[in-house]
DNA sequence: TAGGCCATCTGGTCCT
DNA sequence: AGGACCAGATGGCCTA
């Protein structure tokens, strides 16, 4: 196909297409033209070729050239539509906690969707947990009438970040997996945006493992100041989420 | 070589 | 009527 010829080895899902200039060298289009010349249908066993409806009849009245132009236009629109879809898919891949790069195989579409779903579930549970912790902190504050006793004086972090900042490293030190969890990133991130996968320059875990078990996101995940850590050690998924996941992956 | 993934073409259907 | 959306078919590339 022309798209395969124009794409590089990493199988971009949104290949740069010079549609108008290259399309007429397309084998499929040449076959299409040849078929139209000979009057032979391109696919003799199409179940939908029975062709009923006003549009089909109207097309029968068109000249060969008009029909060809119409086909090219429709094909081009469909191609653009699929490219837009692939662009959106690429955008989704960019925000997934998964390594990217020339040496890393790109997530397939189905994998991207499944991983995105798990990621959303995980972030949701992180948010719920954070809300609970913040509520606990403020509850303690109101009882003791003194925030300074609750918050360490040297801490400059906002109260909403404290639970995660203090919990995550301690959790990881308990398990002793600090080699895989780099403590501090060297690049500042927006506090409310998820870490882009491009920033997470770690080797990708085996894809099937990651997809089958969202808890395995812990292997090789970094902690970000002020961000909920989605790794399994910091944020174990609730049982309901796990069951949901197993349902979706049962296939 | 089989199977997975993908891009593209194509006709039908639905919507504006 | 035209465009968007969808699903089936087809063929190419890549990997185990």
TrEMBL record:
Under SUPFAM superfamilies, the record lists: HLH, helix-loop-helix DNA-binding domain
* Annotated segments matching region Disordered: 35-68
What InterPro entries does this protein's entry cite? bHLH_dom, bHLH_transcription_factors, HLH_DNA-bd_sf
Q: Which domain of life is it from?
A: Eukaryota
What GO cellular component entries does it have?
nucleus
Molecular function, one GO term: E-box binding
PANTHER family for the chain: BASIC HELIX-LOOP-HELIX PROTEIN NEUROGENIN-RELATED, BHLH TRANSCRIPTION FACTOR 3
Descriptive protein name: Oligodendrocyte transcription factor 3-like protein
Q: What is the lineage of its organism?
A: Eukaryota, Metazoa, Chordata, Craniata, Vertebrata
């Amino acid at each position: 196909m022309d798209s395969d010829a124009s794409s590089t080895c990493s199988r971009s899902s949104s290949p740069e297409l010079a549609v108008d200039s290259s399309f007429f060298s397309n084998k499929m289009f040449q076959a299409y033209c040849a078929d139209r010349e000979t009057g032979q249908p391109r696919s003799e066993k199409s179940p939908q070729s029975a062709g009923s409806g006003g549009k089909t009849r109207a097309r029968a009245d068109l000249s060969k050239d008009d029909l060809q132009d119409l086909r090219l236009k429709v094909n081009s629109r469909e191609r653009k539509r699929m490219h837009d879809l692939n662009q959106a898919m690429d955008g989704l891949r960019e925000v997934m906690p998964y390594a990217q790069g020339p040496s890393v195989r790109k997530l397939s579409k189905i994998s991207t969707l499944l991983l995105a779903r798990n990621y959303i579930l995980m972030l949701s549970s992180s948010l719920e947990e954070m809300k609970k912790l913040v509520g606990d902190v403020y509850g303690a504050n109101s009882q003791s009438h003194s925030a300074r006793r609750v918050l360490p004086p040297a801490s400059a972090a906002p109260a909403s970040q404290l639970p995660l900042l203090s919990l995550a490293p301690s959790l990881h030190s308990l398990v002793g997996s600090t080699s895989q969890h780099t403590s501090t990133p060297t690049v500042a991130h927006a506090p409310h945006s998820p870490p882009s996968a491009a920033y997470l320059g770690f080797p990708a875990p085996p894809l099937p493992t990651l997809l089958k078990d969202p808890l395995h996101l812990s292997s090789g995940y970094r902690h970000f100041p002020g961000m909920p850590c989605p790794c399994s050690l910091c944020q174990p998924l609730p049982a309901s989420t796990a069951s949901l996941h197993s349902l979706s992956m049962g296939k």
